[in-house]
Specification:
mainly alpha, 12 helices, about 70% helix
């Protein structure tokens, strides 16, 4: 029954309600995780060591470069806050309305990737760059006035649930969907650029490392493969054979 439900695109109300319940459950589980600060810091040190060994530890340099551009930190902070929710919601709504046949695979990939991310948050707590005492700035807090480490927001989410990055993971799902199903070229191009833009945003604001994004992409890939195996392939429509009429034979 679950497989049958997931394989179909339902009414907007039912889809929104289902995703809202799942996202609410996701936030509860994510926020209920024990904040083991020492473990989170150790894991972040491991991430930095891995990136240094691979020669890709450039995040602080990227952030410093954008700090020198007027208004860039404020813009990046605003985009970080709005795109993850508003951008994702708008794109999902568009896919649901314009391409309902493709919506089940997109939605199910979201659900599975999010579930995989929760496993990562529970078993591998990690501090984001801005909290890792590595010299990173908290761009969002400083530029938008929204304190991501405040008591209010801290009660809604776990600040050490940084690996994998669903900011990048969700952007990857939306970007690939737009690039492959949109009819207008500019929309396809926008979709192709969106994941790269989100990667820049999460790195330049001090919220994620490259490894976080890579693991977010891996969660999406596994989620997509699992969704393909789980969903039923819609049966092709069969056209009724034409019946010759007397008028047609005349």
């Amino acid at each position: 029954m679950v497989r049958s439900w997931l394989s179909q695109s339902h009414s907007g109300t039912r889809e929104i309600a289902g995703l809202a319940v799942l996202y609410g459950l996701y936030e509860v589980i994510r926020g209920a995780g024990t904040e083991n600060v020492q473990a989170a810091m150790r894991h972040t040190d491991d991430i930095v060591a891995l990136e240094q060994s691979l020669g890709v530890y450039f995040e602080r340099g990227i952030q410093q470069a954008f700090e020198g551009i007027p208004y860039a930190p404020a813009l990046l902070g605003l985009l970080y806050v709005t795109l993850h929710f508003a951008g994702t919601a708008i794109a999902l709504t568009w896919i649901h309305r314009k391409h309902p046949d493709r919506f089940p695979i997109v939605r199910t990939t979201f659900v599975i990737a999010t579930a995989l991310a929760l496993v990562g948050y529970v078993f591998f707590p990690a501090a984001p760059p801005r909290l890792a005492e590595l010299g990173f700035s908290d761009t969002v807090t400083h530029s938008t006035g929204l304190d991501l480490s405040s008591d209010l927001l801290g009660a809604l989410y776990n600040p050490f649930a940084a690996v994998p990055s669903l900011h990048f993971g969700y952007a990857l799902i939306i970007g690939v969907a737009l690039a492959t199903i949109a009819e207008r070229r500019w929309v396809r191009v926008l979709g192709g650029l969106y994941p790269a833009a989100m990667l820049l945003i999460i790195v330049a604001t001090g919220n994620h490392f490259f490894v976080d994004a890579a693991l977010g992409g891996l969660a999406v890939l596994v989620g997509w493969l699992a969704a393909r195996m789980l969903l039923r392939t819609p049966a092709p429509r069969r056209h009724a054979p034409r019946v010759a009429t007397s008028a047609g034979r005349a």
